[in-house]
Design brief:
Layout lengths: L5 H10 L29 E4 L13 E4 H7 L2 E13 L2 H7 L1 H21 L3 E2 L9 E3 L2 H21 L7 E12 L5 E2 L1 H11 L6 E4 H7 L5 E6 L13 E5 L2
Parallel strand pairs: 6-8
Antiparallel strand pairs: 1-2, 3-5, 3-6, 4-5, 6-7, 8-10, 9-10
Helix pairs in contact: 3-4, 4-5
Bound molecules: zinc ion (2 copies).
Length: 244
Amino acid sequence: MFRITEELRERVRERASGRCECSGPNCRHHRTDARCKNGLRSDDWKVYWHSEKAGEEPSNLEAWCLTCFENNFEVPTHRVTLLRPELADLTALEEADPRRAVTLRSVLRDAGSSLATERGGHVVPGLRDELLIEFEQPEEALAAARELEGRFHEHASKLRLPTVPLSCGIHTGSVRKSRTGDVYGDALSIASMVETLAQAGQIVISDPVAGELGTQVTLEGLGPLPSSEPADDDEPLGCWVVTG
Ligand SMILES: [Zn+2]
Ligand SMILES: [Zn+2]
């Protein structure tokens, strides 16, 4: 998933000619098929994307006025822990054997879904490419991450597929949920960035997860997330490898 940088945000605003791009008849703000008439001034707008369209394509982003944004997301914020598992060294695997990468990722998705169901989590809907599993508690996400690699290998061996190790990222943060169940928020892309720090077989967690897990885990510091998006408080997000 791409990151919403300040530059990208500004580009979206310019492309929208400074007008809100919400045109949904479901929007309580205008309720018609017409486009919202609000302008986008300074900070009173948000970059929005439909999660079914989420991908590497910035043109899928829309600029929405805050009124439309708030009207389309009924649950203001919801604190969740996101587990982001991926095949280790995915880029190398995709270059060497793209078909195997696609097959193994779909096996990982199946293994992740079944594990999520057993452990009270669920796969974040609408993300075609990335597997993200949402849990209420960090403990649940960590337990799932610890079990996932074994489960993935089981699924792969049933299909007689030579397997690869996984890397996992876990992040706790706030998301918004639309009325249709779409999940929106920086926490999703942060979880993905945390995963990129994990080497084969590793589970990497962010500061908020480490804070909540406390002494339940042994950690090794990785330092802050590189080029992490300026958060509200501008604090760089520290990351940790789970070593025990
Ligand atoms: Zn609007
Ligand atoms: Zn609207």
